[in-house]
Specification:
The protein has 350 residues and is an all-alpha fold. The chain has one domain (6-349). Helix content is 72%, strand content 0%. It is built from 15 helices and no strands. The chain has helices spanning 6-26, 30-34, 39-48, 52-64, 78-109, 122-129, 145-161, 168-182, 194-212, 216-233, 237-254, 264-271, 273-294, 299-327, 334-349. This is Peptidoglycan/LPS O-acetylase OafA/YrhL. The chain crosses the membrane at residues 12-30, 45-65, 86-104, 168-186, 192-210, 217-235, 267-294, 300-320, 332-349.
């Protein structure tokens, strides 16, 4: 099995760039001042850039389909499987939270920024480290951390369903995907839970299984029909994006096009997409505050500032990726990982 899927890497790279620029447009003050240069572009990024999240959801489900499902008995107990996922997510996540909190403290004490989060409480920190902040109603300490919590919920739920015998795992995932698309995703009160997002995630998982099955096109047609019914019941741009993405990946897998490899820079962007997703808010906060302090006016200089913030976000993400790779290794001692996380907690509390 090829470890790298070229089209998936290309999609992750695109989603990584799109989410950073969405937040550049969403959080001021640079985008507010630069907007007169290209109002349509800034408005599009503000409104539609968040669709990158749907790409990440579908890709996560699609990649999970490679390792779980019918004919693939689990190699580890479910709690251990989820625990490993938690640790893998948590190390860069905790480091990014430390950076976000430190930057917010400096910004609040100096130049100021309207989007800087307040000083965290112990309960807020604990909720973030357990990835339940939205479930318990704690204010977020950084943009995008909600997604990490949802990713863990989705992984835990999907891997649990995939432990059902034979084709029952497919039936269970398909049923929950349909329930999410036709009901849960229409209720914004559920948007702190995996039930709200399982529709997009499940489309990716089902498309991955369909494309590798004995009758790929018939199974992909069933996935397509599910999406059509969901969109007919209630049109949602985000579900349409997820549906197209899932079917596209399934079709590429079924035709053998996954062997295509993207340019090295695109593969690099895909590799650092998760760390960039985590760390870019702190970078945007720091650059936006300094830019507004140094140059309070001028569309062109603030458009340049947005470009600087984007470049620094990629560099910070690459650095975080290298750090996390040095800490979380397949044979790393659990005690070392726990010590690193405890140090991060102390740093955040200080």
């Amino acid at each position: 099995m090829n470890d790298r899927l070229g089209p998936v890497d290309a999609l992750k790279a695109f989603a990584c760039v799109l989410i950073v620029w969405h937040h550049l447009a969403f959080y001021g003050p640079m985008s507010d001042l630069a907007r007169p240069l290209a109002p349509a572009v800034v408005d599009w990024l503000y409104t539609y850039g968040r669709m990158a999240v749907q790409l990440f959801l579908v890709v996560s489900g699609f990649l999970l389909a490679r390792g779980v499902g019918p004919g693939r008995p689990p190699s580890k107990p479910w709690p251990e499987q989820v625990g490993r996922r938690y640790l893998r997510l948590l190390v860069p996540y905790a480091a990014a939270l430390v950076l976000a909190i430190l930057v917010a403290d400096v910004v609040r004490a100096s130049v100021g920024h309207p989007d800087a989060p307040g000083t965290p409480t112990w309960t807020q920190l604990l909720a973030h480290l357990l990835m339940v902040q939205d479930l318990v109603g704690e204010e977020s300490l950084s943009a995008g951390v909600w997604y990490v919590a949802i990713d863990l919920q989705l992984f835990a739920l999907a891997t649990l369903l995939c432990r059902l015998p034979g084709q029952w795992s497919v039936v269970a995932v398909a049923a929950l995907t349909a329930a999410s698309l036709l009901w849960c995703n229409l209720d914004p009160r559920l948007d702190a839970t995996a039930l709200y997002f399982f529709g997009a995630y499940g489309l990716g998982l089902l498309a991955g299984w369909a494309a590798r099955g004995p009758r790929p096109w018939a199974c992909l047609a069933a996935v397509a029909l599910l999406g059509i019914v969901a969109l007919a019941l209630g049109w949602r741009d985000r579900i349409a994006v997820a549906w197209v993405c899932a079917l596209g990946l399934g079709a590429l897998q079924a035709t053998g096009a996954m062997d295509w490899q993207p340019p090295r820079w695109m593969a690099w962007l895909a590799a650092i997409s998760y760390p960039v997703f985590l760390v870019h808010f702190a970078v945007l906060l720091a650059v936006g505050s300094l830019w507004a302090w140094w140059w309070p006016d001028g569309p062109l200089v603030h458009a340049l500032g947005m470009g600087v913030a984007f470049g620094l976000s990629l560099l910070a993400g690459a650095g975080l990726h290298r750090m996390a790779q040095g800490i979380v290794r397949p044979r790393a001692a659990l005690g070392w990982q726990v010590a690193v996380l405890a140090a991060g907690l102390v740093a955040m509390a200080v």
